[in-house]
């Protein structure tokens, strides 16, 4: 999308005058501290109005993270949540009598150690449980194990290609060097390279100096951002099975296949975790909702308030500045700063009057890509899938609790091409995890919860509707598993199928996109969610963003919330100076 000079001029005027205008408007609008709503901090049915330093819209994990940091800094902060439970996509809920599950997100990988340390989440009960090595069935009588042990994974690859086994250690080191660069970028506030004022040039120079030692590694990042996963991996590996084991990640949560340009980066995004298990994955005891609860508890220790059943329908702007939020029940909360954890499309297309936004900015937001093809099935079962290709003695563990079904590149690409034609994948790729093998809090004794996540199930179907296709789609997924683990579907006690329209309806993510938008080159770093406004701010003074629509994107990392809080506090200090 072109960057017009009027837009650049608008940005320059805003940046240049922002501190003075913000200082004046804050002093005029916010008088006194007001009275905090009384009573229980969570779960009010009858909300009251009040004044706060900061009001955050959406109690997903990033909203809670942002709120916890702000509360720790002494700001009077309120988080409003539309649903009856905090956590957004990181929640634990009962879906069948006696069975609880991580309804949406299902494994912990990217929750950053810094966030865990800063908010003392382990001291508040956050417990990470290890997943087994990744088990990848290749038909009914063969498999690959992908392990954190590089030598073991290399031996596994060697069974399919001696060449692939021989180069795996070198590839792993090469990819991790690229990952280290991206990990460092995660905590950066994206610069605006189009700015030509003194501050913009200073930030650009500081950014270039900080990363001056990257050297040739810069081109590794360019390759990841522009190449397809399969082309990238084909530089190293010759066998379609070994490429599929690594390339599988490129389609998780995205409308892409292994041959889609730019999909190589999504592989890296999923492998950047810094925790236990293959690729940094692990289970959370009591489900992913325990992450959200621990973050909220960290904030409550410093006065953070969270309120559920508070559906924000409008952000009122006064004098070009966000002044208060209004809920569906008519309750209003004045704030010196408003922070949005909801999708950028919801924020700017529904909550803010279009007249308050630059037309080019709004056009970009409306073109922001969120089309989703991801599905989730939560299953209450008598037993986990028993894969015929699994051999406990050779695999080294009693039963797998972390499985990828996607045996070769052609299989993964065919699943994607079905979705491109507007139909659900006849042969879907499926991630199957069984948290109840290590967590006894989720199901009755002897029973299990299985989370199935995969693709592709397009948000909209061509020539059909999900109302008529749900049952056939569910049966198809079960058939896919039954081929590799005969009899699994016969042990299903209850299930919950979540298609993109369901995810959209429940947690208000447009088109059900789990990352709040594609992780593609034009929607990353200083382009996420829009040019000139990737720094967690917005065209409206005092209105910030802290959700997955911002850098570095989706995944339960807490990093957008952390970074947004840092920028808010920087502005806060400038205003109060």
What are its keywords?
single chain, 577 residues, alpha+beta, FAD/NAD(P)-binding domain, 7-stranded mixed sheet, 5-stranded antiparallel sheet, 18 helices
Can you describe this structure in just a few lines?
The chain is of the alpha+beta class and 577 residues long. It has helices spanning 5-29, 61-72, 113-118, 150-158, 162-186, 198-210, 217-226, 229-234, 240-247, 263-270, 289-300, 344-351, 359-367, 392-395, 409-420, 466-484, 500-507, 559-576, and strands at residues 50-57, 77-80, 92-96, 99-102, 128-130, 134-137, 143-146, 282-284, 305-307, 312-318, 321-327, 332-340, 374-381, 402-405, 429-433, 448-455, 492-498, 543-545. It has a domain at 5-90 and 287-367 and 518-576: 3-Layer(bba) Sandwich (FAD/NAD(P)-binding domain), CATH 3.50.50.
